[in-house]
Structures are given as structure tokens and as C-alpha cells.
Amino acid sequence: MSGTSGNLLTTGGGSGAAISCPHGGRATSTTGASDRAVLVNGAPVATATHNYVVTGCPHTVGGVPEPCVAVRWTADSSGITVDGAPVLLDTSAAQCVTAAFVPQGPPFVQPAQREVTVR
Hey, which of 91, 108, 118, 119 would disulfide with 79, CB 3.0 to 4.6 Å? Predict the structure, then answer.
């Protein structure tokens, strides 16, 4: 294992992390309530299999709307897993993208959970 550390992300509910695109749009998990393999404070732990959609992004290019619509995560596969999928930490690499998959920059993540370290 690689010594990865960061704050564990959870999905949904009031205990989940606040995630936004670089332009202020809000990112939320679209994974259903059936995905409850591991819970932290009643909220499912976010994994690399979770999908995040961005709403409310005001970004424009030359007056043409080019909003962020999704967050694509690259989780560290050498760390903690849930049902075989790497968990997401606030330090996991991610990129906000447009509908045409044009990268717009990394999301801002404000974690709501305690830090976890893998040694």
C-alpha cells in the first residue's frame, strides 16, 4: 500500500462532503440508496463507482454556455476498497468536465468526515 491519506468522502445526506466545480456549480452523487455497503454516520462511503453530476455551473466561453456537468474521479487503487472499488478521499484526483468531456479543472471538496490513513 502506498501511504495514501485524506478525508473519507460519503454520499448524500447531511453528513456528505460539499463538492463543487471550479465555477461554483454543485456536485452530487447520483448513486441510489441501494448502494449501502459501508456507512459512515448513516451515509454511504463514496467509491470510484459512484457517479457525480454537476448542476448550476455558470461557466461560459465567448458568451456560449459551457457548464460543468460531471466529475470524473481517479481513485487510488492501492488503498481501502468497498466491494472491490477504491474509496474516494478528498485527496483523490478528479476533474470536472462538460457534456463534451472537456476538462474544466478539479472540483473543490470540503469533507465532512474524519481523516483516514492507509499505511
Answer: 118
pLDDT tens digits, one per residue of 23-43: 999 999 887 555 666 887 777
Tally of domains within the chain = 1
Range of the structural domain that residue 83 is part of: 5-111
* Phi and psi at residue 64, to the nearest 5°: -100, 125
> Tell me, what DSSP letter sits at residue 89?
B
Count Cβ atoms within 10 A of the Cβ of residue 61 and give its class: 0-12 exposed, 13-18 middle, 19 or more buried: exposed
What is the residue whose three cell numbers read 465532512? Answer: 112
DSSP per residue, 10-38: B-SSTTSPEEE-TTSPEEEE---TT--SS
pTM check: above 0.90:
no
